[in-house]
Amino acid sequence: MQEVRFLGRGGQGAVIAAELLAQAAFLDGKIPQSFPFFGVERRGAPVTAYARVSSEPIEVRGSIATPDAVVVLDRGLLRFAGATDGLRENGWVLVNAPASVQAFAAPAGIRLASVDAARIAVDHHLGSPTLPIVNTAILGALARVTGIVSLDALERAIAAAVPRKPQENRAAARAGFEEVRPLTDPRSRLPLPPPRPRRELPLPEGPLALRSSEEILTASWRSLRPQIDLSRCTRCNFCWKYCPDVAITLDAEGYPKLEEEHCKGCGICAEVCPPKTIAMVAEA
Amino acid sequence: MARLTIPKEELLRPGHAACPGCGPALAVRLLLKGLGARTIVSIPASCWTVIAGTYPSSALGVPVLDTPIESTGASISGLRAAADALGLEGLTVVGLAGDGGTADIGLQALSGMLERRTDAIYVMYDNEAYMNTGIQRSGATPLGAWTTTTPVSASARGKAEPKKDVMSIVLAHRPAYAATANPSFPEDLVAKAEKARAVHGARFLHLFTPCPPGWKFDSADSVAMGRLATETGLFPLYEVEDGRLKITRRYSRLKPVGEYLSRQGRYSHLTPQEVDAVQAEVLRGWVGLLRREAEAGPAHDAPSASLLTR
């Protein structure tokens, strides 16, 4: 049995990718399974979906703790711990990244590959340049590096299940299959976090939630970040007053400070700033 | 440096699980600034159940009771009774429910709490649909709005029924204090929360809380959308104290309601005629509000004994 974990953001198609993989595996004569992780389904929030492919009936029903491959639809998510949790020895991490990104640092025992699924999607008019729908391109790449499904079955699954632009999606899968490349350069440009040990949460005896939500780093939801030009700031504190995420504080002199780890990048501060000293810029 | 116009203390913590640009998150951040730390909040099933956090963490700096969706009014009645039995002084008991949990599922318990004069504040944060479960229409969804259960097709034009007027239902119970507020006007919202805290008896706040994913607009525009709702007269800001209605944000001219509707995907199917119909309804509501404000006076409070037969 092979197990795959998909990581993306709400709207990128991670759940559909897991379903398409399962349908392709079925067309290959295998026994598949796919389902999303039910968590905080919020716009921009990280989304996890799973697929299992086996030649035997699959007895397990739970989420995948020890995947053979992790497919990362948004490489911004690599900055956060958890992407490679539980990955098996010599497992694959397949990342959507432009060709200019040549080097990732992979801990020993992890095989890395990348494909420019965003460019392929745009080339095939899938989604928009700012929000390309990358799932079919990256599935083609996954078929190539892991052999988990045949390209033929993948194309047939796409043709049967994708309601809009089925031909463009098939072509994107073929392009992903052709263009995927393994990354072996050990230089570190996009560090891959090491897997975290599993943690068990004991049931408490007193009140339930004693810890602060501040330990949850919601910056992982962000694709844009506010950049504050303090030289033009009038200290009106509108950005602080209207922030729904409590992610802007005021220093002793009344200047705003961004709380990097929690800002979700909604853009309200830039919108309400009277002198327009806040710009929303893309995350690296 | 500009003077702070609202309290600096934060009782909402970062790391909560609201969507980017969430109106309900901003509204409750401001609400708690007005209510203060000596508050206990009962939250039924709603977006706020999720926002407040999952075990083992909490996004609120005040105690929270998770309660079933129909039980907000009953649960705050119980919390008040328990606080009184324990002799806890100066405790503000608050129910924080969505529009579905208030206008539909929790209406009976709300009515009971108001009728019993329970010494608590019931807050309805209104994002105009069941957003936590994925945008299903509620009684508070406005006429014409698209939701997943009020689709737009060849034979359907979004929600066919007008928004339920929860405030009128509440006012029929003659609460000690009731007000509308909107996080796009933070000073007004905080002042009303402070006022509600100081009054005893059954109190009600109707908070207007824009929802970027549910209403289909960009998260950066959440505050602008709230401002437009009030500036168009669609969601007027007022308070009712001992039956006297007072408008707290007055306009001599309202913006055309199309400025508000046209910026939301849930209204993108509306024809100019349908927008005109909404406009007419908004103007009727605004004129009615002005009239009710003018009516409220001493003569209204103390009917003359000459009305009685001898």
Task: Explain what you see.
The complex is a heterodimer of chains A (284) and B (310). With 284 residues, chain A is α/β, with parallel strands linked by helices. Chain A folds into two domains: 2-191, Pyruvate-ferredoxin oxidoreductase, PFOR, domain III (Pyruvate-ferredoxin Oxidoreductase, domain 3, 3-Layer(aba) Sandwich); 217-282, Alpha-Beta Plaits. Chain A is built from seven helices and 14 strands. In chain A, the strands form four sheets. A seven-stranded mixed sheet of chain A has the order 2-3-1-4-5-7-8, covered by helices on one side. In chain A, helix 3 packs across helix 5 and helix 4 (151-161) packs antiparallel against helix 5 (166-179). The two termini of chain A are 36 Å apart. The model of chain A is unreliable at 186-190 (pLDDT under 50). With 310 residues, chain B is an alpha/beta fold. Chain B has a single domain, classed as 3-Layer(aba) Sandwich (Rossmann fold). In chain B, strands 3-1-4-5-7-6-8-9 form an eight-stranded mixed sheet, sandwiched between helices. In chain B, strand 8 (238-241) and strand 9 form a beta hairpin. The model of chain B has no long low-confidence stretch (mean pLDDT 94). Chains A and B meet through strand 10 and helix 7 of A and helix 1, strand 2 and helix 9 of B.
Explain the layout of strands and helices.
The complex is a heterodimer of chains A (284) and B (310).
Chain A: E1 2-9, H1 14-27, E2 31-36, E3 46-54, E4 69-72, E5 91-96, E6 104-105, E7 110-115, H2 117-123, H3 135-146, H4 151-161, H5 166-179, E8 181-183, E9 190-191, E10 211-212, E11 224-228, H6 238-241, E12 248-250, E13 256-258, H7 268-272, E14 278-282
Parallel strand pairs in A: 1-4, 4-5, 5-7, 6-9
Antiparallel strand pairs in A: 1-3, 2-3, 7-8, 11-14, 12-13
Helix pairs in contact in A: 1-4, 2-3, 2-5, 3-5, 4-5
Chain B: H1 23-35, E1 39-44, H2 47-51, E2 57-58, E3 64-67, H3 72-86, E4 92-98, H4 99-104, H5 107-115, E5 120-126, H6 166-171, E6 177-181, H7 186-198, E7 202-208, H8 212-215, H9 222-231, E8 238-241, E9 244-247, H10 258-261, H11 272-295, H12 298-301
Helix pairs in contact in B: 1-7, 3-5
